[in-house]
Amino acid sequence: MKALTFIKSVSDSHPYYSSCIELYLSAFPADERRDVESLEKLPDDNRFQFHYLADGNDLAGFISVWQFTGYIYVEHFAVFPHLRSSGIGSWAINHLAEIYKSPVILEVERPVSEQAKRRLDFYSKNGFQVIKSDYIQPSYGPGKKTVPALLLANTNLNPDQVQPIVKELYSAVYGIE
């Protein structure tokens, strides 16, 4: 690893843009992501931030974040396959908590496949725990399905704290009132 940094942008004029969109499309099944056109409109919402993850001058991945009062929500996070297990992902997810100085909330699919188990293990090793095991990721739009998932946090939350978070995610991120 060189000097890892976050670069805030989702501009299609940024040199990392096209590679990052390719990673976004390959790393997440269609039901677990927005259409690219929808993603490109999100910077209009000041709560949303898209960061390229750079390793020196090389693109290593990306992370998209929603900043809410009292926590941040990681909507999508991916590192290029050839860089996985190098420590970049752990650095990024932990550095994110330091930058925002807030608890980090995220969704992962339920551990029914080997890949899903590895993903849950990654987050567990980085201090995340399940805060809602019966969570359902809403549909990203017409033709897309809901996804049975787990809601994770890097801090202890009681059930009274979790429900308002779920309600805010459903409303702000997925447009469900």
Question: What does this entry look like structurally?
Answer:
The chain is α+β, with helices and mostly antiparallel strands. It has one domain (about 5-170): 3-Layer(aba) Sandwich (Aminopeptidase), CATH 3.40.630.30. The protein contains 5 helices and 7 strands; from the N terminus they run E-H-H-E-E-E-H-E-H-E-E-H. It has helices at about 15-25, 35-40, 90-100, 115-125, 160-170; strands at about 5-10, 50-55, 60-70, 70-80, 105-110, 130-135, 145-155. It has a 7-stranded mixed sheet with strand order 1-2-3-4-5-7-6, sandwiched between helices. The chain is globular, with a radius of gyration of 15 Å.
Brief write-up:
The protein is an alpha+beta fold and 177 residues long. Helices cover 32% and strands 31% of the residues. The model has no long low-confidence stretch (mean pLDDT 91).
- Given this structure, which CATH class is correct? Alpha Beta
Summed up, the helix count is 5
CATH topology assignment: Aminopeptidase
Name the CATH superfamily classification.
Gcn5-related N-acetyltransferase (GNAT)
Question: How are the secondary structure elements laid out?
Answer:
Layout: E1 4-8, H1 17-27, H2 36-41, E2 48-55, E3 58-68, E4 71-79, H3 88-100, E5 104-109, H4 114-125, E6 129-137, E7 147-153, H5 159-172
Parallel strand pairs: 4-5
Antiparallel strand pairs: 1-2, 2-3, 3-4, 5-7, 6-7
Task: Please name the defining characteristics of this protein.
177 residues; alpha+beta; 7-stranded mixed beta sheet; 5 helices
